[in-house]
Amino acid sequence: MQTSSDRHEYPSHWEADVVLRDGGTARIRPITVDDAERLVSFYEQVSDESKYYRFFAPYPRLSAKDVHRFTHHDFVDRVGLAATIGGEFIATVRYDRIGAGGLPASAPADEAEVAFLVQDAHQGRGVASALLEHIAAVARERDIRRFAAEVLPANTKMIKVFTDAGYQQKRHFEDGVVRLEFDLEPTDRSLAVQRAREQRAEARSVQRLLAPGSVAVIGAGRTAGGVGRSVLAHLREAGFTGRLYAVNKSLQDKELDGVPAHRSVRDIGEHVDLAVVAVPAPFVPEVVAECGEHGVQGLVVVSAGYAESGPGGRERQRELVRQARTYGMRIIGPNTFGIINTSPDVRLNASLAPEMPRPGRIGLFAQSGAIGIALLSRLHRRGGGVTGVTGVSTFVSTGNRADVSGNDVLQYWYDDPDTDVALMYLESIGNPRKFTRLARRTAAAKPLVVVQGARHAAAPQGHAVRATRLPHATVSALLAQAGVIRVDTITELVDAGLLLARQPLPPGPRVAILGNSESLGLLTFDACLAEGLRPLPPLDLTTEASAEDFHRALERALADDRCDAVVVTAIPAVGETSVQDAALAEALRSASASAPAKPVLVAHVELGGLAEALSAAASTAPQTGAGAGGTADAAGPGAHSAPVGRHDPERPSAGTGAPDETRLIPAYPAAERAVRALAEAVKYAQWRREAAEPGKVPEYEDIDEKGAAEQIDALLSRGTGLTLGAEDTCALLGRYGVDVRRALPAPTPGEAAAAARTLGYPVALKTTAPHLRHRADLGGVRLDLADEEQLRRAYAELTELFGAPEELRPVVQGMAPRGVDTVVRAVIDPAAGAVLSFGLAGAASELLGDTAHRLIPVTDRDASSLVRSIRTAPLLFGWRGSAPVDTAALEEVMLRVSRLVDDHPEVVGVSLEPVVVAPHGLSVLGATVRLARAPLRDDLGPRTLPVV
Prior knowledge:
By secondary structure, the protein is α/β, with parallel strands linked by helices.
C-alpha cells in the first residue's frame, strides 16, 4: 500500500508495467515517502560517473535532506517516478514546476525542470525513454506544457534520450551546460518514435520466448505420460538446439531421459532463458519466485486452474502476472497449449504437440489449444489435407492470454523475416484499438488472416476483455478497414493461408477459368460472380484433354492481358495412372512459371491420383514428422499444393518471401473454396494498393478548434455526461463548419404559427418526443406546409393522433431541398475507440443493418469509400433514373465530424439525423452531441502493458 505525499492522493493510475528495449519488463510508479530506503539503496549502486552527470559535481551519497526532498511530492508541482524490478529501484525521474527565472512555482506556470538517474547495470535498456514518456504524460495531466533539462555535454546518452523522443525542441549551450527545452504536446514524430519503440520492445519480448538459448521444464515427472514429461520429450525429439533441463522436486537422479535433471531451477548452474511450468496451480507461485530469482526471462505456463475455473482462479491469474512482472518476466498462458519455432537454429517444440510441424513461412496464433492442434494437424498432415504447402514458422497458443497476447505476436511477426503470412484464431480481442492499429501496419507488409470464434457469445471465461458496445459486424468492418482478411471458419482460414503463402497477389478481379469439365467450369464461373469477381467465359478442354493441353491453355490464359488470375478445374479420368497425374502436375507447374505475377489455383474432384501427385511433387521439402498430432479435421478434406518453380524475389508476392523457395499451386476440393480464397486475395491486394496512398485528413481553415475547446470546457464545468441542448449543439457543430437547420419550439398552435413566420413558409412540423423522433413512417412529421391554415390543421392532427403537445414536443423547421435522407454518427467505444458510422435514414436500413463504419480520424479516401460501402449506396448515385446527390458535400460533413471528435476527446457522441443530401448541397435537420470528461490515458498515452 503506497502512502500519499504532501497534498494529493496517491495517483494509482500512474502505475504501469512496461516492456523495455531488450524485451524484459519493469514497473513504473510514483515515488512516495515509503521509498526512502529503496532510494538510498538504489543510489549506492549508481556509479560515481552517473552521479556526477546527474548533479554536475561529485556526490557520493544522499543526505537526509536529499532523501526527504526526493521522496516527498505533492503529485502536482513536484512529481517523482521510479522504474522497479523485483520491488527495487533501477531508475528515477523527477520534475519540478518552475516559473520565471527557473524558480519553484505552482499553476498556472506551465514549465517544469526534469532530471533522470539510471543504474549503470540497466543503462541501454530503454528505461529512460520509457520514463520520459510516462513523466511527460503526468506533466500534461497537471497542465505542464513544456520541459527543460540541463545536461553536461559529456552525458551523450541522456542528450540522446531527449533528442530522440521526437518532441519540438530548443537547444542551446551556456556556462558549460547544454540546456534543452521541448514542448510536451505529442507530435507526429514523437508518436511515431513511441510506436516504433513499442514495436521493437514487444517484438523482442516475444523473440526471447520463441528463441531461447536454454529451457527448463519444471514439473517433468518421473513417470511417463504427464504433461511436463511430455513437453520435455517433445523438446528433446524436436532437436532443440539449446540447453535443456528437467526440474522436479521429486527427482533423485542426475538425468531424466538423457536430460540434466535438478530439483529446483536454482540448482542449475547456468542461466535459463525460458521455463515451461507444468505443476499444479497451487505450486506455481513458488516456481515463479525461484525462476525470477534465478534470472529466467520468460514463462510458458501450461498449468490450468486459473481464470477458466471461476472467480478464485481469476484472482490466482492476476497474482501470477503481477508476480512474474515483478521479476521482469513475461508469461504465455496460463492454460496454454505451448509454443513452437521451426527455425533450424532453434527447433523449439515447447508444446503438447507430439511432433514438430514442417518448417515454413506461415505464422500461426491460436488462443484455443484445441483449435491450434487442429490447425497444425491439417496444415502439416502428410496424407489428405493441406499437404505440400509451406509449413509453419512459429506457433503460439496463449491459452488464457493473461499477459502475452495476439498484439505482442503481431509485433513480432511484423518484421520477422521467417514469416510471410499470419493466421490467427481469436476468441476475444482484449484491446481492439491497439489490435486494429497493429493489424493495419502488419497488413501493409504481409497478409493477416483472422477467424474470430465466440462471435455470438461471451468471450471464454479465462479471457480479460474490455467491454464494447459495438456489434460483431461493426468490429469486422473496422478490421477490414485495417486490411485484415477476416474469414468465418477454420476451413477458410487455411484455404486463404494456403493461397497467400506462395502465390502472388492478383493484380485485379478478372479471372480466367479452364479445365476438362464444363460443369465444374460453370460452377466456378457462378462462384466468381457470387464473390464479386469478374470471370471470363470458362474454357472447356473436354475430358480428353492431355497434360500438354492443360499446359498450353494455362500459358495462353496467363499471357492474356484481360486475365489477373487463373482457376484450373480438373476431373481426373477414371483409371488414370499416377504417372499421368504427375504429368499434369508438372504441366501446371511449368506453365505457371511463365507468368510469376499472376496467381494460379486448382479446383479438382478427387477421383484419381491428382491430389496425391500434387502432394508428392511437394513432399521433397524438409520434413521431420508426419504431422503435428491431433485428429481434428479443421480445414476440411482435400486441399493441396503443388510446387511450380522457384521463388522470384521481384514478383508481386503476398508476403516477403524468401529466395530459392518453391512456389506452390494450392488445390481445393471444391470450386467455391478456391474462389472464396481468391476473392479474399483480390480484396486484400486492392487494400494494399490503396494503403500505399492512404489519403489525408483535410485541414479546414474555417474550423475554430480553440473556440470549441473553450466551449466544451465551459459546458463540462456544469457536470459530466452531458447531452447538449439544441443551441449548444448548433454552436459547437458550427465551429466545425457543420450547420444545423434551425428548428423553433412550438408548444402551442399560436407559437407554431409565429415560428413559421420567423422562418418563412413552407415549413415542416415535427415531433421530437423520443418514441417518435426520426420516425416519419409513424406519421410524426408533416412536410411542405405552405401557410398558417395548413400548419394549424397539421398541428391539430398530430395532437389528436399522438397526444398533448407537452408529450410530443413539436418544433417548426424550414423546408429543406428534396434529397436522400442519411444518418452520420460518431461514438467513442471503450474498446475500439472513436468510430464514424454512415447509413441511409429509415427503419429499412436499420432493420437490415445497412451501416458502414470507419475508425476516426477519417481520411478523404475513407470518407469516399464509406459513402459507397453500404448496400443502398446506388440511391445516392442516380438509381433508376433519379438525380445523383451531392456526395462530395456529404463526405465533407463526415470529415468535419471526424475532426471534431478527433480534436476533442471530450466529445463522446455525435448524431446527425437526418442529413438530407440534395443534388446540390445538403441540410442537417437534426443533431445531438454528448460530452464527457476525457480519459486520463488513451492509446496516444505512454507505452504500457494491460492492467491485470
